[in-house]
């Protein structure tokens, strides 16, 4: 197994928000997550990078159990992830998720997309939910689109609505699963700017991305994965200027010299 | 020309057909939706029940089901659906029950195919904001599924309208039974058949056109 090194200062135990211990998962014969140990502190922005098929999306999806795991444990804010049922639904409400393909509810307006969870899960009144939704839509810069349907919006706008939808649940941690990979190049920045702002506001974030610029500027820590393992962890500065593992050197040489 | 129809309650019989269609239609939609929910549920027992139900029921002839409601349920088990003495009401209710049991299997499969058109990401996003299984299904998946299966559901409804004639087998006074009666009594065979054929077309053609328009209107844009 590759050596895992943590260069970031050790975080006090009380501030550990997401803890993965010895997590394993298989897709058939493919061992997609191999003995993953990862701790994410409150307020930390962790960017997960690595080649396709390295297991980074699966890792991200495992944190709110959209993917089950075969062994190991994942806990959120000190509580282990329940397997199914009401408890799991409650936990998922505390974990915001932003998908590569946006996944806005196609039959609901932008505003309804952002109020649905507040009303049905957080049991807020419609007026209260709409007020919060409008404030969030304003924050991500799509306030004027509130009454449109998702298909009428550009990809960048849809993804910003998706971020607002996740934020509306007041999550403890936000997971981003390649949020800009399905976007046209000119729309990537508008989404990254919203994410930068979130990071500055102190949101705990796990971001799977290929945007190295974002990793450099917003991340507290870069986690490099390959073949189902965490190969290397470091601050962005250290990782991009002096990667230690050969696998990371190889990966960076392929993506940075264009 | 249509003197021979005098004394027959043509409109009344078609009214019974309409009533059979409406009650069975609503019933099959409700029961079929529940069956579809069972077939996609995470509980193996429910999935198993849904699968077995659909595969058994849709392969039994409707006549057998309708006749069983009368001879089996009513005569043998004395399940008379609240009308032990009123044979007319009893026959009608049993026929509605039989039609629901049968057509719900087809409704279920139409809706299940609709569920399959809803991208997986929609359900994942719904789960990710903390909705439970029932909420994911009723708030996000089914509303989109229904919009994509208006056309196949229309087919089931049209088939149901015509299948109500099988209620004649247990003596429900709908259009099919009256036609049989007229054909047996009167000489004008072709005219009689044409009238009843036309009657059903008048019922089903607007249904098809209306629901066709409706299906286009509510289609989900992606």
From TrEMBL, chain A:
The keyword Cell membrane applies. Keywords: Amino-acid transport, ATP-binding, Cell membrane, Membrane, Nucleotide-binding, Transport. SUPFAM superfamilies: P-loop containing nucleoside triphosphate hydrolases. Residues 18-252 form the ABC transporter domain. It is a peripheral membrane protein. GO terms for molecular function: ATP binding; ATP hydrolysis activity; ATPase-coupled polar amino acid-transporter activity. Belongs to the ABC transporter superfamily. The keyword Metal-binding does not apply. It comes from the Bacteria. Its EC number is 7.4.2.1. Its main location: membrane. It is an enzyme of class 7 (translocase). CDD domains: ABC_HisP_GlnQ. GO terms for cellular component: plasma membrane. PROSITE patterns: ABC_TRANSPORTER_1, ABC_TRANSPORTER_2. It comes from Streptomyces mesophilus. This is ABC-type polar-amino-acid transporter. It is found in: Cell membrane. It catalyses: a polar amino acid(out) + ATP + H2O = a polar amino acid(in) + ADP + phosphate + H(+).
UniProtKB/TrEMBL annotation, chain B:
The chain crosses the membrane at residues 20-40, 52-74, 94-113, 189-214. SUPFAM superfamilies: MetI-like. It is found in: Cell membrane. InterPro entries: AA_ABC_transptr_permease_3TM (IPR010065), ArtM/GltK/GlnP/TcyL/YhdX-like (IPR043429), MetI-like (IPR000515), MetI-like_sf (IPR035906). It comes from Streptomyces mesophilus. One of its GO terms (cellular component) is ATP-binding cassette (ABC) transporter complex. It is a multi-pass membrane protein. It comes from the Bacteria. It holds the Pfam family BPD_transp_1. Gene3D superfamilies: MetI-like. This is Amino acid ABC transporter permease. Signal peptide: none annotated. Residues 14-211 form the ABC transmembrane type-1 domain. GO terms for molecular function: transmembrane transporter activity.
């Amino acid at each position: 197994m590759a050596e895992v090194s943590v260069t970031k200062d050790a975080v006090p135990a009380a501030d550990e928000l997401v803890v993965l211990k010895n997590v394993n998962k298989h897709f058939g014969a493919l061992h997609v997550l191999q003995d993953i140990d990862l701790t994410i502190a409150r307020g930390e922005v962790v960017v997960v990078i690595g080649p396709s098929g390295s297991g980074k999306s699966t890792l991200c999806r495992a944190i709110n159990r959209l993917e089950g795991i075969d062994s190991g444990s994942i806990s959120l804010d000190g509580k282990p992830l329940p397997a199914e049922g009401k408890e799991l639904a409650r936990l998922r409400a505390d974990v915001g998720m932003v998908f590569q393909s946006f996944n806005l509810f196609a039959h609901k307006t932008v505003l309804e997309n952002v109020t649905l969870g507040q009303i049905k899960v957080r049991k807020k009144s419609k007026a209260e939910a709409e007020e919060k939704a409008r404030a969030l839509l304003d924050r991500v810069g799509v306030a004027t689109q509130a009454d449109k349907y998702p298909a009428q919006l550009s990809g960048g706008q849809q993804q910003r609505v998706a971020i607002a939808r996740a934020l509306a649940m007041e999550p403890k941690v936000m997971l981003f699963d390649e949020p800009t990979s399905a976007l046209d190049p000119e729309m990537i920045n508008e989404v990254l700017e919203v994410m930068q702002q979130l990071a500055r506001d102190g949101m705990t974030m796990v971001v799977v991305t290929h945007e190295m610029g974002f990793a450099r500027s917003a991340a507290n820590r870069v986690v490099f994965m390959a073949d189902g393992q965490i190969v290397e962890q470091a601050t962005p500065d250290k990782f991009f200027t002096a990667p230690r593992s050969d696998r990371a050197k190889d990966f960076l040489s392929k993506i940075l010299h264009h | 020309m249509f003197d021979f129809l005098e004394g027959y309650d043509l409109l009344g019989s078609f009214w019974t057909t309409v009533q059979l269609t409406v009650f069975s239609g609503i019933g099959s939609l409700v029961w079929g939706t529940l069956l579809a929910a069972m077939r996609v549920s995470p509980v193996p027992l429910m999935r198993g029940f849904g699968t077995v139900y659909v595969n058994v029921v849709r392969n039994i002839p409707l006549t057998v089901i309708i006749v069983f409601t009368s001879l089996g349920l009513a005569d043998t088990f004395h399940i008379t659906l609240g009308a032990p003495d009123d044979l007319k009401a009893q026959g009608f209710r049993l026929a509605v029950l039989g039609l629901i049991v049968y057509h719900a299997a087809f409704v279920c499969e139409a809706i299940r195919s609709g569920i399959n058109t809803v991208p997986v990401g929609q359900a994942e996003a719904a789960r990710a904001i903390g909705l439970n299984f029932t909420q994911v299904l009723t708030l996000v998946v089914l509303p989109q599924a229904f919009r994509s299966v208006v056309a196949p559901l229309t087919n089931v409804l049209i088939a149901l309208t015509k299948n109500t004639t099988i209620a004649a087998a247990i003596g429900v006074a709908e259009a099919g039974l009256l036609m049989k009666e007229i054909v047996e009594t009167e000489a004008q065979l072709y005219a009689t058949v044409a009238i009843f054929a036309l009657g059903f077309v008048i019922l089903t053609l607007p249904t098809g056109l209306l629901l066709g328009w409706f299906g286009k209107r509510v289609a989900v844009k992606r």
